[in-house]
Every structure is written in C-alpha cells, then in structure tokens.
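Incident log, structure service

09:12 report received: a user says their structure output differs between two submissions of the same chain.
09:20 pulled the input from the user's history:
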Amino acid sequence: MSAGASRILVVLLAVLSAAACSGTKVTTQSFPQAGRYQVHKIAIIPFETMATPQVSEGSGPSFPVPPGVRRTDSVLSFPPTIDQPAQRTHLVPPGAGDKITDLMWEKLKNKPGLQVLAPQEAVRASRELSGGAASAGSIPAHHIAQRLRADAALTGKVLVYQERVGSRLGADPPAAVGFELKLVAPDGTVLWEGNYYEKQRPMTEDLLGFVQRYGTFVTAEELAAYGATELADDFPFGAAGERK
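09:34 re-ran on a clean worker, output below:
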C-alpha cells in the first residue's frame, strides 16, 4: 500500500471512529440519584408497543407524528419534526414489543455481575399483584420490582418498527426502528433512560451506518438487534458497566 493510500485509510478510520463515538442513534441518561443504588438484579417487564399510527417518513433521529397522536413521556423522547408535513403513517406491529423485549433480555443477561430475570417472571408477578386481572404493562414497574425482590425493573416502549420494502440491494422505504427504555428502582425512582432510533440511510447520508451494514439495506429486526446491543453496552450497571 502506498504512503498516500495509507494516509487516506488512516483519515477514513479516524472519521469512522469519531462518528462511532458521537452518533445520535443511541441516547442514554443516568440520573444523579442513581449513584445511591446498588443494582445487581433486575426484572424485565415486557415492552409496550405503541398502538397509535406513526409516520413512516422522517429525517435523522427525529420523527414526526400525526396531530393528536399520544407521544412518549420519556425525558429523552425525540422531538417532533415540524418542517415537513406528515404524510404516510403505519402501525407498529403488535409483536414488536415482545421481539425487542427478548433482544434486550438476551443482551443484558450476558453482562457479568448482573442477574436479569426473564420477562415471564414479570408477567407472573403482575398476575399475582392483580389477582390475574392485569397485564404486566398495567402494573407500576416499581411494584413488580418489589414483588420479585429485584433491585430495579426495566420497562420499554416500541415507538417505531417499520420493515424495509425491497431487498438488501435497495429499499424504499428502508427499515426504521425506535424504542425507549426506563430503569426504575423499587421505590419508584427513575435511575436510567435510553433511546434508540434509526432509519437506515444511503451512504451519502450516513457513511458510518452504511459501512456497519456492509453496504446493504437491513431488516427492522437487524436494526433492533443493533440498538439493543448498543443500549446494553451503555447500561450503567453490571461488572462490565459499573458506574464511573
């Protein structure tokens, strides 16, 4: 390899590395009070699937929603886009919540120093608390954490889950996935929040993402798996993610 080519390669790697460290697809926040809690055992509550229509076109980490649509209450929620009118809408598939719940469980249970209860445990606890009359999502997260004697409970909401229309060589629209997580202590204190949103873009708009996907258009499930991995890596508890 020539000296000129080597310099170009070094610059490209530096650009990709910087983009990887400063990407906006994943946003997390640990709250100041989280430092007072020791979290070694967590319960995962099956994630809620947004039931209202979502706009299938958006730009960057923000996405618009139709007027009157219920939005998330997360402090890290994505702001509505106001510079372009809402056009096409779609419903998040009913099974998207369970799919991303399982992805997060698989990623988090492999973190050393962290015991992660299966989502079915939270379902069982919610039935016991309600006498069998309620789903896990209708019982406050901290009550489920108390019931399971967990240090915290992880809840989530799937806001966008749009499958690509096309193939790996080209898609219109491409896949888009967005979901949020919230970690709640048994006393109701919110310890941590995380958000992931990505709509796959062509190389001219997202060079790093295009390289990460090996130059192909991936499925919604593949995007969701990427988001779950990134959020699990940023999760502030467990031996591999002890609080700094």
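09:41 both user submissions now match this output. Likely a transient worker issue. Closing.
09:42 reviewer note: The first helix runs from residue 3 to 21. The radius of gyration is 19 Å.
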